[in-house]
């Protein structure tokens, strides 16, 4: 039976109204401020949405208008989006760390008239761009600290809008209910801008039907209960957060919890102990790095205990994956490990109560994936796209596999075309790109969405994603080259933050490495190796040797033809501000290849050094550049590799 009665709850605000009527006192959304969790019940959450919507209406907000939110995850920012939707408007969340040019592009392209900003930092950013935003009528701030002396006609506080809404509601008691009733499943609820891996971001128009259908399908195949806790810490502009913090939370009556700040996420995660969790690979890789560093810093006895039970867990996980039965000795060992290692580690990570966790947004390396599962974390893979309301396929608890993304979710059809590209059709597929009809026609053919991903179905009917279709290539000898697969192998190392592999139409694989400043810095300090900056640290011969050893470990798990033969250490981190990464930490591969063309040429012409000039972009749009001479290192041949990775 359908989880959502579309006849009565066909929009997100109507789902909120349903929750307020059926479970008025249950926790709807929380936020942590000054160390204390403040809870809004479903009825309190609805009241905030209603009053803010009426305040917007009093100030001229109407159907079809667009409202943007910018800031960290806050109940007021989620409520603002629902308020706009209740009036027939559209939400346009933007990344809080966007530089000026990115913000101007999205806000102008979407024709945003109202911006709800979290605090003074975001207000300052928006006001500095005001002259470039002709559609902007109002800026509303949530946190008033530092803003008491600001005097700008477009600026007002969240509380003042709430007060205006209450006054407007007394004069027009039926206005909110009447406007919300006009909403329909086919209305555009949100314009979600893509990460822009291949160019300027595109505005995917997601209807209420799209978002609710995707959430409904996900809830059918994953165990959730009303009142389950969900930590909402991912960027509000990322469609993954939209799908869970709005779609799934409202459809499944899951409680959203907003951490105090990005810096306290790990502490708040441990304190909250959520029942369900989603994190992109970068978060899981950071968690793994933290555990590896803590293990290396422990006493010799603790290191031996951790290492023994870690190896045991990974061996047993591989046996279970292969369908083999564990011996009695292994079962006893796992029980002891649960008490001594696995349980305490899950507790430190804040995942002791988690029934399931998902990784999504990009592939997670199989070594990292198996590590978490071996420690008793029910980590699974999910696959989606902005244009599919974030959700396409996911794994069942009993079918978790690092090599697949599971089965398509209910009512979502997936097929592979003759070129190996993944296509899908279903009620979650978007309505098109905002103001880009030609691009929409390229993406949708007879209702089938072209994902741009290369994949296939395995014998069990599970979807396997190889890489972005445009990134999959071949080496000169004809061997397949999937750079993301190699990069994930490299990033299993705690000392490697990012890796970029090259090899398409080349004789061998080369890699640019960005070191992890924190872990490599700690490694250097233990050895009395002085350094003054990222660039200085990355140029140390000792660090080059460390990374060579880490690459050799990855090479040992790869066929010889795919092993990295040469590498260099970048003089800076790959950054979204410099357009090398998206805001969701996806590599802009084409841009990076063009930017580092001199490096690629040096790799393959046998050079031992290359001069690299890189441009650095500051938040306000100012640019600077650094030039340095970087050493290219050759790797010794690895030990005989396995036939299959």
Q: C-alpha Rg, in Å? A: 25 Å
- Major sheet size, sense and barrel closure: 5 strands, parallel
Secondary-structure-derived class: alpha/beta
How many discrete structural domains? 3
By CATH, the topology of the largest domain is Rossmann fold
Order of neighbouring strands in the sheet with most strands:
4-3-5-6-7
CATH architecture of the largest domain: 3-Layer(aba) Sandwich
* Straight-line distance between termini: 42 Å
Strand % is: 15-25%
Mean pLDDT: 90
CATH superfamily of the largest domain: ANL, N-terminal domain
The low-confidence parts are: 1-6, 641-645
What is the element layout, followed by pairings?
Elements (H helix, E strand, L loop, with lengths): L11 H11 L4 E7 L2 E6 H17 L7 E5 L4 H12 L3 E2 L8 H10 L4 E4 L2 H9 L9 E4 L13 E3 H14 L3 H8 L5 E6 L9 E5 H14 L7 E3 L7 H14 L2 E4 L6 H8 L3 E4 L1 H17 L2 H22 L6 H22 L6 E4 L6 H9 L4 E5 L9 E2 L12 E2 L4 E4 L4 E5 L6 E2 L3 H7 E2 L2 E10 L5 E6 L4 E2 L5 E2 L1 H9 L4 E7 L6 E7 L1 H10 L7 H5 L2 H15 L8 E6 L19 H7 L1 H8 L4 E9 L5 E12 L11
Parallel strand pairs: 1-11, 3-4, 3-5, 5-6, 6-7, 10-11, 12-13, 13-14, 26-27
Antiparallel strand pairs: 1-2, 8-9, 9-19, 14-15, 15-16, 17-18, 18-21, 20-21, 21-22, 23-24, 25-26, 27-29, 28-29
Helix pairs in contact: 1-2, 1-9, 2-3, 2-6, 8-9, 12-13, 12-14
């Amino acid at each position: 039976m359908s989880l959502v009665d579309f006849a009565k709850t066909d929009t997100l605000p109507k789902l909120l109204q349903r929750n307020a009527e059926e479970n008025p006192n249950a926790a709807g959304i929380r936020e942590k401020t000054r160390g204390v969790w403040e809870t809004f019940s479903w009825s309190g959450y609805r009241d905030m949405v209603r009053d803010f919507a009426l305040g917007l209406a009093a100030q001229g907000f109407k159907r079809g208008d667009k409202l943007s939110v910018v800031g960290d995850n806050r109940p007021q920012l989620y409520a603002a989006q629902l308020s706009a939707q209740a009036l027939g408007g559209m939400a346009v969340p933007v990344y809080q760390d966007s530089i000026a040019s990115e913000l101007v592009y999205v806000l102008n392209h979407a024709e945003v008239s109202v911006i709800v900003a979290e605090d003074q930092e975001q207000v300052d950013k928006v006001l500095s761009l005001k002259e470039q935003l002709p559609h902007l009528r109002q800026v509303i701030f949530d946190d008033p600290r530092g803003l008491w002396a600001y005097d700008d006609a477009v600026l007002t506080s969240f509380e003042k809008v709430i007060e205006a809404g209450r006054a407007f509601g007394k004069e027009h008691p039926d206005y909110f209910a009447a406007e919300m009733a006009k909403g329909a499943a086919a209305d555009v609820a949100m314009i979600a801008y893509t990460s822009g891996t291949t160019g300027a971001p595109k505005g995917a128009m997601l209807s209420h039907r799209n978002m609710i259908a995707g959430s409904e399908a996900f809830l059918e195949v994953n165990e959730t209960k009303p009142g389950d806790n969900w930590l909402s810490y991912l960027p509000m502009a990322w469609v993954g957060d939209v799908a869970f913090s709005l779609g799934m939370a409202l459809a499944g009556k899951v409680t959203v919890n907003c951490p105090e700040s990005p810096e306290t996420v790990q502490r708040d995660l441990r304190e909250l102990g959520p029942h369900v969790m989603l994190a992109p690979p970068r978060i899981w890789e950071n968690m793994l790095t933290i555990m590896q560093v803590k293990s290396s810093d422990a006493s010799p006895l603790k290191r031996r205990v951790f290492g023994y039970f870690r190896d045991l867990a990974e061996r047993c996980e591989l046996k279970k994956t292969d369908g083999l039965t564990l011996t009695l000795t292994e079962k006893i060992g796992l029980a002891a490990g649960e008490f001594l290692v696995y349980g305490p580690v899950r507790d430190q990570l804040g995942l002791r109560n988690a029934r399931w966790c998902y990784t999504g947004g990009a592939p997670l390396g199989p070594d990292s994936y198996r590590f978490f599962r071996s420690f008793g974390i029910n980590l699974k893979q999910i696959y989606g796209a902005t244009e599919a309301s974030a959700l396409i396929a996911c794994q069942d608890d009993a079918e978790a596999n690092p090599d697949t993304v599971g089965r398509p979710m209910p009512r979502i059809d997936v097929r592979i075309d003759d070129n190996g590209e993944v296509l899908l059709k279903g009620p979650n597929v978007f309505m098109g790109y905002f103001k880009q009809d030609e691009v929409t026609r390229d993406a949708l053919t007879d209702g089938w969405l072209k994902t741009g991903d290369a994949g296939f179905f395995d014998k069990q009917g599970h979807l396997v994603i190889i890489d972005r279709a445009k990134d999959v290539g071949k080496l000169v000898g004809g061997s397949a080259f999937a750079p993301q697969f190699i990069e994930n192998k490299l990033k299993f190392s705690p000392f490697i933050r990012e890796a970029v592999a090259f090899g398409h139409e080349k004789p061998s694989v080369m890699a640019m490495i960005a070191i992890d400043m924190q872990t490599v810095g700690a490694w250097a300090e233990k050895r009395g190796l002085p350094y003054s900056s990222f660039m200085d640290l990355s140029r140390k011969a000792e660090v080059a040797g460390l990374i060579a050893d880490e690459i050799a470990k990855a090479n040992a798990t790869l066929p010889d033809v795919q092993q990295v033969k040469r590498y260099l250490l970048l003089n800076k981190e790959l950054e979204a501000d410099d357009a090398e990464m998206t805001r969701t930490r996806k590599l802009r591969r084409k841009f990076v290849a063009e930017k580092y063309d001199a490096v690629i040429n040096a790799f393959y012409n046998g050079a031992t050094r290359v001069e690299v000039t890189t441009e650095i972009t500051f938040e306000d749009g100012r640019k600077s550049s650094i030039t340095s001479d970087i050493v290219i290192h050759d790797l010794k041949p690895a030990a005989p590799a396995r036939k299959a990775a």
